[in-house]
Amino acid sequence: MQIINLTFLVNYFLRAIVYGWPNTYVFTKAMGEMLIGDLKENLPVVIIRPTIISSTYKEPFPGWVEGIRTIDSIAVGYGKGKLTFFLCDIDAIVDVIPADMVVNAILAAMAAHANQPGEVIYQVGSSMRNPLRYSNLHDYGFRFFTKKPWINKDGTPVKVGKVKVMGSMASFHRYMTVRYLLFLKGLEVVNTAFCQYFKGTYVDLSRKIKFVMRLVELYKPYLFFKGVFDDMNTEKLQMAVRENTTEADIFYFDPKCINWDDYIMNVHLPGVVKYKK
Questions:
Q1: Which of 80, 84, 114, 121 lies 20 to 30 Å from 15 when distance is taken between CA atoms?
Q2: Which active-site residues does the annotation give?
Q3: Strand partners for 54
Q4: Residue ranges per structural domain of the chain
Q5: pLDDT in tens, 131-143
Q6: Please, which contacts does 183-192 make with residues 24 or more away whose CB atoms are closer than 8 Å?
């Protein structure tokens, strides 16, 4: 049984907060798993929990990605020169796994549990066995877009600099207050004094600030997350696959084989730039 969540209503978001979940995404995923647990009866159930899914490692070819999502939107924003600061614990782990490794793990798990009743959970990620950190992404992005700058529509290259990283919510709020909120307050006063002459500018800036603040609240649990996911079941599945040397080469999903420097610089970021939508 598959459960697909396409809902992002405000009242549903509030419901997630009330029940202790940071957003509707994780809330509905948890609901889906609970529903499966209640209805599965004697059917074999395999739950795959991938972390941040990135471009392909090998198949169908290295670097394939469908559109811009999660960390890729940050990379594109930086490459275009639109991202000058970022909020995160720079030493925290960002748990990334290539898309084809997730697919291989799903196929291997399906074959292993086809006729075995019960429920098994596989955490498919890299945080335990080959962690990638925000500090690494910070460095990779600067090196990549310095060497291969983003080209604007007019043909000019975008020059990027080191992103200012804010390591706490307090520093972020101070930055927003000094850089934007004080100006917005002054603009509100001026707009009132000039009979709403600057209303369009005020509304537009206010909307953008509220959007940024909402995104920060949504992603805050991940930007400062210090946990590492236990993937012992996935490691056991890998060991079972390795027993068959033929299948081990076909159904690869061991994150330890990833050289992050080579993958991000030579596979992932070139793929994001090439297949952006």
A1: 121
A2: 25, 29
A3: 98
A4: 40-274
A5: 999 999 999 999 9
A6: 184/209
